[in-house]
Amino acid sequence: SRAWRGLIEEYRDRLPVSTTTPVVTLFEGGTPLVPARRVSQLTGCEVHLKVEGLNPTGSFKDRGMTVAISKALEEGAKAVICASTGNTSASAAAYAVRAGLTCAVLVPRGKIAMGKLAQALVHGARLLQVEGSFDDCLEMTRKLAENYPIALVNSVNPHRLQGQKTAAFEIVDQLGDAPDVHCIPVGNAGNISAYWMGYKEYAEEGIATKRPRMLGFQASGAAPLVSGAPVTHPHTIATAIRIGNPASWRLAEAARDESGGAIQAVTDRQIAAAYKLLAQEEGVFVELASAASVAGLLQAHGQGMLVPGQRVVCTVTGNGLKDPDWAISGAPTPVTIPVDAFAAASALELA
Ligand code: F0G
User: Fold this and answer.
1) Predicted TM-score of the model (pTM)
2) Does residue 190 have its Cβ closer than 6 Å to ligand 1?
3) 34 near 278, Cβ under 8 Å?
4) What's the rounded Cα separation, in Å, for the pair 268 and 266?
5) What is the value of ipTM here, to two decimals?
6) Which residue has the CA at smallest separation from atom 12 of ligand 1?
7) CB of 186 closer than 6 A to ligand 1?
């Protein structure tokens, strides 16, 4: 086996690049598909986790960003802009550095996890905290990109979804076929749309014999695709998917309907429980929004939506280290001891 070359080189013939496109890469993609023993036990299915938190900036956004930033550079952009709940801004900031572009990001003030804020700042992005929601930020960035020489790298930029579809390719390449069911968190609804594009493309060419049912999961306080109407004041502990008016609304509905799937809501309580289960029973540390896919799978199982033995992939979209505040708030307070092995033994109840 040879070293992974980043997803543009690995899937070059399936992406909108030519020999003259400057490839801006941090060697994203090639993420592990980890068997989930406990979740498999609980559901009677063969469940795998696509661990996207192992991308260079800690989320799946890097897949879209390598293509979007490469194309922006090819097209002569000097600056890029995005709205973000955190991960897109972290990714855009890093890839912009790589490309020598300036990067501006608009985030909802007080509603993004600390690790993500740190990433955007450390990579030197111009970060504006907006006194509004993600949806407000996205509307603003669209206006800015229309009126000023600055390229939009949110998932309304079609190059983003092209990059993100490669996650579906990797899953099929690894499993030898598409899974029966694919579970995924849904926020701005770009990623579910991208996976569906990838699965369709492989099935159309006979690389996969089937296409999975797409099961998308939104947080119940931010579930416009479930209610069918935009949510003016979305709320959830999963700040990454705190979105009331998803940009890829129609594409996500098409993915749901064409695949015979569903988009459902899961409560914050279910998300927090799945987060804990992944950390404590699978050894996989994800961020809250990512746990929505597993929370949703458990819910679908409870509703009798799964056939025993089916092969299921859950995308876990971002790394748990993104949000240390949440991780620590739910953990026990560490015990402090003197420099004394016996004190350690007694604290550990070894003696
Ligand atoms: N999971 C994580 C960790 C995310 O950061 C996002 C989106 C999603 C799931 C949902 O994906 O929007 O394609 O439906 N984060 C965006 C951001 C909105 O700005 O980082 P989606």
Assistant:
1) 0.98
2) yes
3) no
4) 7
5) 0.99
6) 188
7) yes
